[in-house]
Amino acid sequence: MSEAATMTAPTEEAVRAEVCAWLDANWDPNLGLVEWRNRLIDAGWGAPTWPKAWHGRDLPPALAAVVDQEIRRVGAVNVARAGVRNLAAQTLLAHGTDAQKAAFLRPSLTGEYSWCQLFSEPGSGSDLAGAMTRAELKGNRWIVNGQKVWTTSAHHADWGLLLARTNWDAQKHQGLSYFLLNMHQPGVEVRPLRQMNGHASFNQVFFTDAEVLPEHLIGELGGGWAVATTTLMHERRGADGTGAAAGREPSAPRQGRIHDEERAEAAVANEPYTWYPQRAGRVDLVLERAKATGKIDDPVVRQEIAKLLILARSAEWTARRARAAQVQGRPQGPEGSLGKLAASHVARAAARVHTLISGADAMLSGADGPEDGIIAEILISVPAVSIAGGTDEIQRNIIAERVLRMPKEPGSSDDRPFRDVPKNVVG
Amino acid sequence: MSEAATMTAPTEEAVRAEVCAWLDANWDPNLGLVEWRNRLIDAGWGAPTWPKAWHGRDLPPALAAVVDQEIRRVGAVNVARAGVRNLAAQTLLAHGTDAQKAAFLRPSLTGEYSWCQLFSEPGSGSDLAGAMTRAELKGNRWIVNGQKVWTTSAHHADWGLLLARTNWDAQKHQGLSYFLLNMHQPGVEVRPLRQMNGHASFNQVFFTDAEVLPEHLIGELGGGWAVATTTLMHERRGADGTGAAAGREPSAPRQGRIHDEERAEAAVANEPYTWYPQRAGRVDLVLERAKATGKIDDPVVRQEIAKLLILARSAEWTARRARAAQVQGRPQGPEGSLGKLAASHVARAAARVHTLISGADAMLSGADGPEDGIIAEILISVPAVSIAGGTDEIQRNIIAERVLRMPKEPGSSDDRPFRDVPKNVVG
Amino acid sequence: MQFTFTSEQQEYRAVLRRYFADSSPTTEVRRLMETEQGWERDRWRDLNAQLGLCGVHVPEPYGGQGFGMVELGIVVEEMGRALVCAPYFASAVLATTAIMNAAAEAQKDALLPSLVAGDAVATLAFTEPNGRWDAGGVETTAVAVDGAFRLDGVKSFVLDGAAADLIVVLARAPGSSGEEGLSFFTVRGEADGLTRRALKSLDPTRKLAELTFKGAPAELLGELGKAAEPFAKTLRLAAIALANEMVGGADRLREDALDYAMMRVQFGRPIASFQSMKHKQADMLLEVELAKSAAYHAAQAAADDAADLAALASLAKAAASEAYLQTAIHAIQIRGGIGFTWDNDTHLWFKRAKSSEVFLGDATLHRERMMRAWGHR
Amino acid sequence: MQFTFTSEQQEYRAVLRRYFADSSPTTEVRRLMETEQGWERDRWRDLNAQLGLCGVHVPEPYGGQGFGMVELGIVVEEMGRALVCAPYFASAVLATTAIMNAAAEAQKDALLPSLVAGDAVATLAFTEPNGRWDAGGVETTAVAVDGAFRLDGVKSFVLDGAAADLIVVLARAPGSSGEEGLSFFTVRGEADGLTRRALKSLDPTRKLAELTFKGAPAELLGELGKAAEPFAKTLRLAAIALANEMVGGADRLREDALDYAMMRVQFGRPIASFQSMKHKQADMLLEVELAKSAAYHAAQAAADDAADLAALASLAKAAASEAYLQTAIHAIQIRGGIGFTWDNDTHLWFKRAKSSEVFLGDATLHRERMMRAWGHR
After folding, report:
1. pLDDT by residue (tens digit) across B241-291?
2. Mutate to test the interface with C, among B364, B380, B426 (most CBs of C within 10 A)
3. Is B172 on the interface with C (CB under 8 A)?
4. Which residues of D touch B (CB under 8 A)?
5. Distance CA A193, CA D340 (A)
6. Which of A257, B76, C344, C357 is the most exposed place for a label (fewest CB within 10 A)?
């Protein structure tokens, strides 16, 4: 939101009154999902922190939270604002042309366009800027060839946020450009990527002469890294739990055509995430499991459970300190960047405790395993927490350099032309 | 010992028989300490692994152990071969001229010369090659100015192993030279360095125009680092517990003038080390303390004690695997370099367990503290284990690079002239 | 539940931090810790007069400022950060809180104002040589001899016990046990039948004493036999205060270690540029921030009089015990040999971390208390 | 006590390592783990025939090679390293050891040769759905009905229990408890009154089954009511064997993770050149070497029939449980996302580490057993 906006921000009471009045007048569960969302968008209630010029009201986060609250309270559906969709929108708001904003923001909020992020590659895991997927301008088309990986929802995404190399003679970060790629075209092949826990919530995406229109270049040619960092910054916020996740909260089962449409949308969007609670360690199951098995009476197990609860609660309170500071509009303290690293510790500790509690049963999975296989899924899913969305090692680098302002390692600034930089052979 | 030697090594029986016969004929507790040691040295039994040309017999470690064993068995005194004295001798054997060996080896073995190591400086802790103490040749003397630190026994040493910079325009490692410095001269001031546990087992050594004779340069001018690595290699062996520590084992109280002399010598040599057992965590005290306090019945404490014992025993067995391989003359496996790092883990775990066992009493020290203050001394001495003689971080670097053959970090090879390298300002 | 400090609270913290930085440099800490008492009465009275520290959580009627546990938490956190040598924890936290929880109105009127003013220094004597941090460990007995009470028994680990003017003592009726028959008493520091012996503490900035009562004359504080509940409440608040003091010290250690790493050069580069150092500092930040969150949350819960305060207090103390000591260990390690020397200041906080780790009960004890308080059994 | 392997033992290890590397690549492990049985009888018979694995620790009179626990430790370590899919642990380690410890001479003559030859596959059924790894957990009863024994009860977590030809079962006299009234029995895999159900295991390379006995006919093995001591001895040796199998897997994981770090490039340099990676690899080496020392020492102690073997066996299992899982966690982390994929081999060992962590009792159980065995109470 703009500086000007914060200064002239209306009061909470005023906002609450205005949105309530509007909802009374407009909310109707028998509307079509897209139809209703267009109304929200026209009124600026769907994305209150966005600029007035683009479907928003320039409201500070604290007041936007009030709006979302009221929309939930009356049981109304909100716009589609979660996950990659939000990253796409924030990136367009920051770097898009008016034409691009006009073309993509509204259909994203209505849910008509769904998105996926095409950054990671097999050869460059933590080193996103080392992308080797190439985009070459041939005639009036960008021709894309290469391979991406860890792409959630690629199989049903309409558009992809693509980071591709357009200049191999420039230094690594200077040779990248950022495109919007239409996923519905022959040059794009999406293959599911099976994981050690049997789920396939990610995809590999292969480009063979895939096409991108010139007007779908975001930002400057060769300026892709700057655009990507905006996307990543918003992604990290989400991971820290400090981002606006309003759209994600599941609404209680309600009647009406619009709710059915929303549930169908959510079912598709959430399908890849069914095991994510297990990945996080399911701290919520620990006490009931300990009581069910009688291990709650074992002093040694009690200590381990206590350590886990202390870690989990402290992490939760740390995230809330960060959110509270953000809502107050005060500069966020160090606590903001710690959420992801803390989550890794919590998940690993939870897996240990679940093993301790389950004993021999920890060897069993599926229908034979405790909690109908949930415990086994925890044990073989937790290793992903400290990797997905930036490994613990990367998180520590980020905390050290961005929060603690510690210097980069020598030799980390590599000014060779990218074609001369050592790379992994992938194939 | 030389290659040739190993091939023609005599049998264990032969060696045992020969040394026994010699001891029967020569051992006499009423001899003077130096007198007796000179006999041992003349016979080559004092340093059996050393070359025949220099007081030794070119025996492999396994057979040398037999000799030491027999000397202990008959209750005879051995030569002075422990600690820095051994480092000095090994360094001279590897890099000294015949004149230097002739001048220093024998009086070291007899105990007439005691030694200290003048490597570390306030400005270069882990970075020994960053030494800033300068030696300049003026007329026919090397004039030494600067400051050393962490010098054990400097206050009663006769000679110092000095690493000093003789060329500031060469790269860091090329500008160093290695000298033997006479500690008994006006230009040398030794000040005790008090530690957080109240002990002062180290010294600071200040040089103000201290003098070194040209013939006391060891190895090449500018070749000091190569010589120092020999010293350090033998020091690390000692730290790993894989070195020949025969001389260090305290002999049981025995009668005779020579034993009194030896005890007096040991008292001086061991004085700085009284707190070292506490620094290592005193695992030996854990069970009796747990039984005395009744904490042995606490299942939680039992687990922590068990973890400690498992760690300590495994570390001990790992060191013995390394020694056994060494004695067999087989190439030492990775287990050899792990001793020091393992010792840090053991000590920290022991401090935790002692705290758990002592409870509120852990706040008390001296006569009011448990075990007459020993527990308190453990708690405030353990932090030194992971620092002294190479920090845990340095140990990990060494293991990664020398054992696992992992590459050095980029930028770690610094070919600037030393005068241009950033340094610490030391007050 | 509030998760940030108000701007007034932040301003108050800033004032205290500046003040303690000026008035309690480590040269001063070192000077005072070498004295037998560990603090100086005049300096302490002045400091208290200027900042009104002792009354921060005491209602105005007794001369206090009428703030709550959040403000008290800020005071002790800043004191822990600067390692201020003062009888604050003994007098303002332990004794004053016990009096507020247990005493009759008239007794509060009589005792609190001089403690708030810093004219008198008090402490709380409850633990005994058995080292237990609960009512069950109390063996000292109180008997009424023609109307006046007399105490017999030994108290140990009494904070500033050798210097305090007034000692609040937890004792029990002969033959009683556990939570039964417990009462608070006040005993004058100079009372007959009371022998005070300074204990040699591992942490020279925290003075402890052993008090032996042989028929020492005592005045009943509050209701006879009803001390169990106010004592438990006092211990909860004390644990929360200690946790806040500890995270203050831990955060100071972390910051100083970071400054050192930024300044110290090895192998031709600042050691702060080594990845292992960067990761260690990141881990330290995480551990300290988590412990701070627990300590702040407990203080806020106390201000809100939360139902599960007992669990949250033990949670905060357990988290602080681990985080402070671990941070102190790292802080020495980061400095290498220098960090182990007497002249380097790190050991001052290391020793405070070590004594704080077990004072009022170690992490293991408080984890078990937390589980019980939450009813997990 | 011997702290190195003889050159013969080292040569034996080298032969096995080469052999398993050729015969059990991960393509083969993946193929077999997808089968219900998890191994193939013919392949197994051939492999055993060529290397005489099943008889390594069995005296010559029974067709074995007459070596001891050190050689058995080498076999299982190399199998754990290559993740060989075979009924070795069930038949050669558990069942064969139980028979050697408990059976009468004539029974050994009758049973051992075919097990040593690999013609028959046996297993040991002792744990029950209560998941206890000791005699006290046994509820299955044996009753003599006109001269023949019949078993009733349920055994679970039985290794290769669904495929074994012969099952050695630990059962007790009705009404007995604890160490009393325990006897070993043999039951044919196809016996009436025995229902076998394969359990879905988290670790697909280790097949477990639940066996339900309803009046199943059984033959007494060894002395009636005297199984407690031979069972305890069998468990000790099994724990030592498992510890050695585990350190083999851990060392393989460590080496592969190191190779990956040397080869993988990020930010224009091999990730092996990052200090945090170097330190992690050093820590992994330390943890694995310590666990290897404990496992080797326990095997040697078994060969020497050391007095405190029970303690040393539990020590080795506890150390291996922690080291194997921790190494597996690091091995995945070092590879990043790739390490979490199904096509990457790391998870095969991770899952084996996870099931081995609790099989025969977790680290907590064995730490307590070690303390008791050493008489620390």
Report:
1. 433 333 344 445 677 889 888 888 888 888 888 899 999 999 999 999 999
2. B364
3. yes
4. 2-4, 258, 261-262, 269-270, 272-275, 277-279, 281-283, 285-286, 289-291, 293-294, 296-297, 315, 318-319, 364, 367-368, 370-371, 376-377
5. 10
6. A257
CB within 8 Å of D136: residues ≥ 6 apart = D177, D178, D179
CB contact under 8 A, C338 and B125: yes
D275–B395 CB contact, under 8 Å: no
Cβ density class B39-73: b for 16+ within 10 Å, e for less: ebbebbbbbbbbbeebbbbbbbbebbbbbbebbee
Residue of B295, B298, B300 to mutate for A, most A C-beta atoms under 10 A: B300
pLDDT (mean) for B58-80: 92
Which residues of chain D have a CB within 8 Å of the CB of A148? none
Which CATH code for domain D7-89+99-120? 1.10.540.10
pTM attached to this predicted model? 0.92
Q: Please tell me whether residue A322 adopts helix, strand or coil conformation.
A: helix
Structure-token pair, residue B314: 């495994």
D259 min Cα distance to partner chain C (Å): 21
Decide if domain D123-224 falls under CATH 2.60.40.1090.
no
Query: What confidence tier does B6 reach under pLDDT thresholds 50, 70, 90?
Result: very low
Domain range summary for chain C, segments of one domain joined by +: 7-89+99-120, 123-224, 229-373
Q: How is domain D229-373 classified at the architecture level of CATH?
A: Up-down Bundle (1.20)
Sign of CA dihedral B261, B263, B267, B273: positive
What does the block give as tokens for C169?
């003592």
Chain C residue with minimum CA distance to A346: C290
How far is D263 from D270, CA to CA, in rounded Å? 6
**Fold of the domain built from segment(s) B275-390:** Butyryl-CoA Dehydrogenase, subunit A; domain 3 (1.20.140)
Asked if the domains at C7-89+99-120 and C229-373 fall in one CATH topology, the answer is: no
A401 contact D CB<8A: no
SS3 for B246? helix
Mean pLDDT of C199-223: 97
Averaged pLDDT, C293-312: 98
pLDDT on residue A330: 72
Cβ separation of D274 and C275 shorter than 8 Å? yes
CA distance C332 to chain D (A): 19
The helix (run of H) or strand (run of E) holding residue A143 is strand A141-148
Residues of D in contact with C276 (CB under 8 A): 275-276, 279
Crossing angle (nearest 10°) for helices A12-26 and A61-73: 30
CB B130 to CB C332 under 8 A?
no
Residues of chain A neighbouring B410 (CB-CB closer than 8 A): 409-411
Question: Of the candidates C295, C376, D284, B357, which has an alpha carbon nearest to the alpha carbon of residue A353?
Answer: C376
Pick the residue from chain A with its C-alpha nearest to B302. A300
Using the Cβ of A407 and the Cβ atoms of chain C, whether some distance falls under 8 Å is answered with: yes
Unique residue bearing structure tokens 């690493």: B163
**Chain B residues inside the 8 Å CB shell of A299:** 298-300
Query: CB-based contacts of C319: which residues, under 8 Å, 6+ apart?
Result: A310, A314, C243, C290, C291, C294, C295, C363
Q: Is the pLDDT of residue D369 over 60?
A: yes
Contact A298 B299 (CB under 8 A): yes
Kindly list the residues from chain A whose CB atom is less than 8 angstroms away from the CB atom of residue C377: 296-297
- The shares of helix, strand and coil residues in chain B, as percent rounded to the nearest 5, are 55, 15, 30
CB A187 within 8 A of CB A133: no
Please give the pLDDT value at position B9.
72
| Look-up of token digits 């000007």 | A4
Of residues C211, C239, C198, the one with CA closest to residue C38: C198
